[in-house]
Amino acid sequence: MKRIVVLASGSGSNAENIYHFFSKGDFAKVVAVLSNKKSAKVLERADRLGIPAFYFNKTAFCSEEGAIKLIRALSPDLVVLAGFLWKIPEFFIKSFPNQIINIHPALLPKYGGKGMYGSNVHKAVKENQEVESGITIHYVNENYDEGAIIHQSKTTLLPADDVHEIAQKVHLLEYEHYPKVIEHVLKQQNGSQ
């Protein structure tokens, strides 16, 4: 069975969606959820779902002797970022080459980079009067939102859509596509990990 480790900083709705998608079969499962925020709702969700959950601070995350040791011990086939807001250190990326993916709430390369997350993205999309937005699922590299794109999905925006409505449309795409893309990426792996 393929093993997924989720890193999240917020409420964890995507993490829970991923958990439910894979709990229906025996192909893959979420083996742990890790968060950089002690008060993140994702930790409560994980606990409720019976998923081992861990908190780490910046020092532990940025140290080769810290959180990465735990993640290595979990032997993940894929590390999935689901609303995780810290930049991934280079040593971390080298430890899991082509095994870390992220979802971004816009059509990259537009509206990516440091500070471009959540409502910040949707506000920028609204201010620029975009006629569409969407999601980008991509591999993680050493730069924010610049890794190779795996999948993009679009949604049409109406002039009357406010930031909240844009966010809702994008969330629907996240819930529909992220688990399926994770499954696809796992199926593409050679199984030697």
Automatic annotation (TrEMBL):
Pfam family, one: Formyl_trans_N
Positions with a binding annotation for N(1)-(5-phospho-beta-D-ribosyl)glycinamide: 12-14
GO molecular function: phosphoribosylglycinamide formyltransferase activity
Active site: 104
Top enzyme category: transferase
Domain Formyl transferase N-terminal: 2-182
Site entry (Raises pKa of active site His), positions: 145
GO biological process, one term: 'de novo' IMP biosynthetic process
Pathway(s): Purine metabolism; IMP biosynthesis via de novo pathway; N(2)-formyl-N(1)-(5-phospho-D-ribosyl)glycinamide from N(1)-(5-phospho-D-ribosyl)glycinamide (10-formyl THF route): step 1/1
Keywords: Purine biosynthesis, Transferase
GO annotations of cellular component type: cytosol
Positions of (6R)-10-formyltetrahydrofolate binding: 58, 102
PROSITE patterns reported in the protein's UniProt record: GART
Catalytic activity: N(1)-(5-phospho-beta-D-ribosyl)glycinamide + (6R)-10-formyltetrahydrofolate = N(2)-formyl-N(1)-(5-phospho-beta-D-ribosyl)glycinamide + (6S)-5,6,7,8-tetrahydrofolate + H(+)
EC number: 2.1.2.2
InterPro entries: Formyl_transf_N, Formyl_transf_N_sf, GART, GART_AS
Family annotation (HAMAP family): PurN
UniProt-listed PANTHER family: PHOSPHORIBOSYLGLYCINAMIDE FORMYLTRANSFERASE (PTHR43369:SF2)
Family statement: Belongs to the GART family.
Function field: Catalyzes the transfer of a formyl group from 10-formyltetrahydrofolate to 5-phospho-ribosyl-glycinamide (GAR), producing 5-phospho-ribosyl-N-formylglycinamide (FGAR) and tetrahydrofolate.
Listed name of the protein: Phosphoribosylglycinamide formyltransferase
Organism: Flagellimonas allohymeniacidonis
Designated gene of the protein: purN
